[in-house]
């Protein structure tokens, strides 16, 4: 896995708060992009929408919509704005690499990268606060993913514990198990919930903020209705 190699020319602006991706697609080449993320593009780019996972998986919430942008009649540039306000990273999968993303982290990838949902199972997914599936990315090519908040890379060799709401991505060399922090009283009273206990050797990406905590913080400033 390499962060410098790329099949495209690209730049990431406005890091780490509102990362904005620009990719230059060579003539005849294609780029896969998460749905609704295209901000602007050259007229040489043609778009096609695809559903990864099939209609059956769509009904269970496991599928991933994405658009394919192909440069026809010449190279073209596309600007991509992810949904969440945060940072972005790029890796180049070398063929044997596999990386797992939380379900909202995927931004874009080259045509040689296979993107598929992976069922976590009841005990791994139900309590994690996520949507019961990870995105499994494998193959060869560019991959971009984003966070809510800034991003921190951690090289794990042994064991490491992360709150489930802060996980962005991790490599296949890491096994994981979801468990509680403390007992059930801690779960409901401490503000801490479930964590992933990683074991093995690989890389982990975490984000510096999580949406549930932000919702809780902003709730106190909501407009209050008058009793009159």
Shape: globular
CATH superfamily: Mitochondrial biogenesis AIM24
The structural domain count equals: 1
The portion of residues forming beta strands comes to: over 45%
Quaternary structure state of the chains depicted: single chain
Tell me the helix content. Answer: 10-25%
Count of beta strands:
15
Give the integer mean of the pLDDT values. 82
Within the CATH hierarchy, at the fold level, what is the topology?
Answer: Double-stranded beta-helix
Total helices: the number is 4
What's the end-to-end separation, in Å? 62 Å
Q: What structural class results from the helix and strand content?
A: mainly beta
Q: Radius of gyration in whole Å, from Cα?
A: 19 Å
Q: Residue ranges: pLDDT <50 for 5 or more in a row?
A: 53-63, 121-132, 183-191
What is the second-level CATH architecture?
Answer: 4-Layer Sandwich
The CATH class is identified as Alpha Beta
Q: What order do the SSEs take from the amino end to the carboxyl end, as H and E?
A: EEEEEHEEEEEHEEEEHEH
**Largest sheet report:** 11 strands, antiparallel
Structure write-up:
The N and C termini lie far apart (62 Å). By secondary structure, the chain is mainly beta. The protein has helices at residues 54-59, 122-125, 184-189, 211-219, and strands at residues 9-13, 20-25, 30-34, 38-41, 45-52, 64-71, 76-80, 88-102, 106-109, 113-119, 133-146, 151-163, 167-171, 174-180, 194-207. It contains 4 helices and 15 strands. Strand 1 and strand 2 (20-25) form a beta hairpin. The strands form 2 sheets. Strands 3, 5, 6, 8, 9, 10, 11, 12, 13, 14 and 15 form an 11-stranded antiparallel beta sheet that branches. Strands 1-2-7-4 form a 4-stranded antiparallel beta sheet, with no helix packed on it. 11% of the residues lie in helices and 53% in strands. It has one domain (10-217): Mitochondrial biogenesis AIM24 (Double-stranded beta-helix), CATH 3.60.160. 30% of the residues are buried. The longest helix has 9 residues, at 211-219. Mean pLDDT is 82; it is low at 53-63, 121-132 and 183-191.
